[in-house]
Write a structure and sequence with these properties.
alpha+beta, 8-stranded mixed sheet, 15 helices, 43% helix
Length: 408
């Protein structure tokens, strides 16, 4: 054999030996697989959407665990027309800029959200600045996939930015707890049938497990289903035919879920509505699985701390003091880690009469809403590609060495 042939033979042998040693390497038993309920829900929902020819972004944020994001690749970064979802940024901007809104002195806002009044929505769009509503919110909350249109209906946003818009509003320290509670209460109380139009699809009819009970109430004892929702809709035959469902889920408002996209224009309304309901049910089932997982509930300190912090901020709107005590009473880790807490002042919510706590401000207003969203990396090829693509598009991305996640 020639010298070159010997070299090739040696190279092949070395490669084969190396490959075999990797394949045959025993796996460590010290790292048990932890089920990611939320990513399971997003993945299954994406399959439902694909089978129904529904082109949509799906995004879920877990506020208790570093604002971790689960999402369906590039579709979650694709802006779609907002249509009736366009009422949501008007609402959030109005609450941010006008104290009269949460005092009940702007009834058109309630009519816009709970009555789905097109005339009042047009009026509020004009009153608070039209396109500047979109551009100012996009700047304030660092949203890069949020595009102002000529009207609130044809403005565009991705599911990724819809989820972050809601999350960053709830974490905005310049907005008091009473105002945030007013928004969530109104969205929870919206009728599922407005002017003869059925809005019971999507997240609107879902039930989320109580964190303190670890289950969904079967006897109607809960005063709320823990779902604050907004629907995006345009009729069959229109182009684009929009279907979207956005929700803040949980007793402590821990999860934000968004399904936002388009159907083929000739899709029957009932088919589109059924698809959204199947997707929402899939996501909520996995949210409930996570909440009801007793072992995970006992060990998840981040979830416990988040629940207690929300109860401190929102008072009985989130939990009774006895419920908070029940969550932490047997957990010495929580008590020792919570011995030094930040000072807070107590205020009263005019909307419900309950006492809430407003965190004292320690930073200037321009430092507001500086919490980062965290994007979970997954083992699937599709999730990996979407994470890396988002990383390259964000100038503020940094890698976390501890949790194997990407921070935005």
């Amino acid at each position: 054999m020639s010298m070159f042939g010997n070299f090739i033979a040696a190279l092949v042998a070395a490669t084969s030996s190396f490959s075999a040693s990797v394949v045959d390497m025993p796996l460590s038993e010290g790292f048990p697989v932890v089920q990611d309920y939320l990513q399971d829900g997003v993945d299954a929902s994406a399959e439902i959407a694909q089978k129904s020819s529904y082109i949509a972004g799906i995004t879920v944020i877990d506020r208790a665990n570093g604002n971790a994001l689960r999402f369906n690749d590039q579709l979650s970064h694709t802006p779609f027309e907002m249509q009736t979802v366009g009422r949501l940024p008007i609402l959030l901007y109005a609450v941010l800029k006008d104290e009269a809104v949460t005092r009940g002195d702007v009834p058109e806002i309630v009519s816009m959200m709970q009555g789905y009044s097109g005339a009042d929505t047009d009026a509020m769009w004009a009153k608070y600045g039209g396109k500047s509503i979109i551009t100012e919110l996009a700047t304030r909350y660092r949203l890069e996939e949020f595009e102002a249109g000529d009207s609130w209906k044809d403005s565009k946003i991705s599911s990724f930015d819809l989820a972050r818009l809601m999350r960053r509003f709830l974490d905005d320290s310049s907005i008091d707890a009473a105002s945030k509670q007013w928004v969530i209460s109104m969205l929870q109380g919206t009728s599922k049938s407005v002017a003869g139009q059925d809005f019971s699809w999507g997240f609107a009819s879902q039930k989320v497990a109580s964190y303190t009970q670890g289950s969904v109430s079967q006897d109607g004892s809960d005063t709320t289903d823990y779902v604050a929702w907004v629907q995006g809709w345009s009729d069959s035959g229109t182009d684009p035919m929009v279907r979207s469902s956005i929700a803040v889920l949980g007793q402590d408002m821990r999860y934000i879920a968004v399904v936002h996209g388009n159907f083929p224009s000739k899709t029957p309304n009932e088919v589109a509505d059924k698809t959204l309901s199947e997707i929402a049910a899939t996501i909520v089932d996995d949210v409930n699985s996570e909440i009801s997982d007793k072992k995970k509930r006992e060990s998840d300190m981040k979830a416990k701390r988040f629940f207690v912090s929300q109860a401190k901020e929102f008072g009985e709107f989130v939990a009774l003091p006895s419920q908070v005590d029940e969550v932490i009473k047997h957990d010495d880790r929580f008590r020792s880690s919570s011995s030094s807490s930040s000072s807070s002042t107590t205020t009263t919510s005019k909307s419900s009469g309950t006492t809430v706590e407003k965190k004292s401000k320690t930073k200037k207003s321009e430092k507001k809403s500086d919490k980062k969203d965290v994007k979970k990396t997954t083992t699937s090829k599709s999730s990996s590609s979407s994470s890396s693509s988002s990383e390259s598009s964000s100038s503020s991305t940094e890698e976390s060495s501890n949790e194997g996640v990407l921070k935005l």
